[in-house]
Specification:
The complex is a heterodimer of chains A (286) and B (272). Chain A has 286 residues and is mainly α. Helix content of chain A is 76%, strand content 0%. Chain A has helices spanning 3-35, 43-51, 65-96, 98-112, 116-127, 132-137, 146-149, 153-176, 180-188, 193-227, 237-246, 250-278. The longest helix of chain A has 35 residues, at 193-227. With 272 residues, chain B is an alpha/beta fold. Chain B has helices at 53-61, 100-110, 115-128, 144-157, 174-190, 202-208, 239-271; strands at 10-20, 26-37, 42-46, 68-73, 85-88, 162-166, 194-199, 211-215, 222-227. In chain B, helix 3 crosses helix 4 (144-157). In chain B, 41% of the residues are buried. The chains are: A mainly alpha (286), B alpha/beta (272). Chains A and B meet through helix 9 and helix 10 of A and strand 5 and helix 2 of B.
């Protein structure tokens, strides 16, 4: 199939069906804004905000949308990155060692049911306003490194909490489901534990890990936007949404919601792409 | 390749093995099974379903230990032969996430050989198995015959002189099957492999084997050993070939009849 044909197929097959519901929502929004309630901004107003992402609105402590999104993504990367680098190794460990599993599993199953947003007040008490910057420079100097100072430890903690469990459990599952014949084959070949991990266990678990990452990402994204509404935050899309609401600049609230939704979709697509790529062999295995 | 001690390639000395089913009922798979298989020869084990054929291979590979008795590979314990015993199962264990070429080269990678050397050796093996051009495909993209050839390729790459094959060709159509059997004979002869080959097909055993060991079912016992000294390649339509098949078949059937008679007697007494 040629390129144009592919594009038309993609538009007709994926984009069009996916646009049906957004179309009705936008239509309803348009109708609502025409009847003239104060809470619903016009589409044009919101579009103006979205089309000038680097313009700093005076209402929002002079932070632009682009900067807000940037801050949100930095926090996301820090918290979710930490979740990945802790959950995957622990999942691989628990999947291979009964002892490790017996130690970790009950604690993790219990912790998992505690909503990370509900942990936010406690995390704030524990970590105070400590940030990544204050860890390195001390509380007094932290303000000098503004960006790092706006990545609060309490926030990283609850983001980690939101992302860790699905990744850990999926990794564990992925390791557990490695067929015994593969392991026996490797041991007969004289493979070491590391070789077994590298050639069999990790590649076999990878699609499952990706699936966990995708689920964890969804949760982390939700948690992050809720966390940015908490006091002590000075930036981020969630902060922008909340502040704009307080000052009745609803065009910014709407713009923030649209950005949150689109970024969430984009993140999901990205990971889904890797999930399919690493799991290409799964559906066709025989 | 011959063992320094002059010991047989594979030997089993009165091995017994039982399993517990899920309900906790004991099932005797093997009962005092003894046999020997010579260096550089193909020894086939035939027997009906439930005769513990696969169990013998699992024990011979060192994956499982017998309840009683002992096995030796080249005169030593299987556990001392790690990396020198090749094991090909009915359901191939090619890694589905690895390209065919990487799968074939896996034993060499495990041994820590340089990438360039692995590549060359894999290419050589692929040549002899008519797998060139398929090395960059994933196993799921191969036909059933090509998959088994790739599995044999990995066996060859492991350079294991002692090979255990568990009905490796049973899922193939007849034409592919015969081609693979000829190919395997050729390779085994050239590399002087010592092979223990489990099959339920008498035809396959008579075509391949230098020695045929016939097992009875439930529990598996050795009932007869046939020495086959027909030269290769064997002609399937020759009278000699047919006669041997007939002798092995009769042996197996007589064992099955005896078992059936015993079972019949059991149920008769049970009925009273």
């Amino acid at each position: 199939m040629n390129k144009t044909g592919k594009l038309i197929n993609y538009l007709a097959g994926r984009v069009l069906p996916g646009s049906i519901i957004p179309f009705f929502i936008v239509s309803a929004w348009w109708l609502a804004s025409r009847t003239g309630t104060a809470v619903v901004p016009g589409i044009a107003e919101v579009m103006r905000v979205l089309l000038h992402p680097f313009e700093a609105p005076p209402e929002l402590y002079s932070r632009s949308i682009a900067f807000s999104l940037f801050m949100t993504l930095i926090r996301f990367t820090a918290g979710f990155g930490l979740a990945i680098v802790t959950a995957v190794p622990l999942g691989l460990l628990a999947g291979q060692s009964r002892t490790a599993e017996r130690i970790l599993y009950p604690v993790i199953q219990m912790s998992r049911s505690i909503n990370p947003i509900a942990l936010m007040p406690l995390a704030t008490v524990f970590f105070g306003l400590a940030s990544v910057a204050s860890v390195f420079t001390g509380e007094m100097e932290a303000w000098k490194y503004d960006l790092a100072d706006q990545v609060q430890l309490a926030m990283i903690f609850i983001l980690w909490w939101g992302g860790f469990f699905p990744i850990f459990l999926s990794t564990l599952n992925g390791v557990r489901s490695v067929g015994a014949p593969y392991i026996e084959m490797m041991s007969l070949a004289g493979a070491s534990r590391v070789q077994l991990l590298k050639n069999v266990i990790f590649p076999h678990a990878l699609p499952s890990i990706m699936h966990g990452i995708r689920m964890g990402m969804g949760i982390t994204w939700l948690v992050l936007l809720a966390a940015e509404i908490y006091p002590g935050t000075r930036s981020g899309i969630g902060y922008m949404l909340c502040t704009a609401c307080k000052t009745s600049d609803y065009q910014y609230t709407f713009a923030a919601m649209i950005i949150i939704a689109l970024t969430g979709l984009l993140l999901d697509w990205t990971i889904h792409h890797f999930e399919k790529k690493t799991g290409h062999w799964q559906t066709r295995e025989r | 390749m011959s063992s320094p001690s002059g010991a047989p390639a594979f030997s089993a000395g009165r091995i017994s093995k039982g399993y517990k089913s899920r309900e906790g009922v004991g099932v005797q798979a093997l009962e005092r099974v003894s046999f020997e298989a010579d260096e550089g020869k193909i020894t086939c084990i035939v027997g009906p379903t439930g005769s513990g054929k696969s169990t013998i291979l699992r024990i011979m590979s060192g994956l499982e230990a017998p309840d009683e008795g002992s096995v030796r590979v080249a005169g030593v314990q299987p556990s001392d032969m790690t990396g020198r015993i090749g094991y090909l199962t009915q359901r191939h264990t090619l890694l589905p996430w690895m390209k065919t070429g990487d799968n074939i080269g896996l034993p060499l990678k495990v041994r820590g050989l340089a990438r360039e050397m692995i590549k060359n050796r894999v290419r050589e093996i692929a040549e002899s198995l008519a797998l060139n051009g398929l090395l960059d495909l994933y196993p799921y993209e191969l036909s059933g015959g090509a998959m088994q050839r790739a599995a044999i390729g990995r066996l060859l790459a492991s350079d294991a002189g002692y090979c255990l094959l568990d009905e490796p060709f049973s899922a193939l159509d007849e034409k592919t099957l015969h081609a693979l059997q000829r190919l395997f004979l050729d390779i085994a002869g050239r590399s002087r492999l010592s092979v223990l080959f489990v099959t339920h097909s008498i035809d396959e055993a008579v075509f391949l084997a230098d020695r045929i060991i016939v097992l009875s079912a439930g529990p598996g016992r050795v009932v007869e050993t046939f020495e086959v000294d027909m030269p290769h390649p064997r002609d399937r339509i020759s009278p000699l070939f047919g006669a041997l098949i007939e002798r092995v078949r009769q042996k197996i059937e007589s064992v099955l009849r005896d078992d059936a008679a015993v079972c019949g007697a059991d149920s008769a007494t049970g009925g009273h």
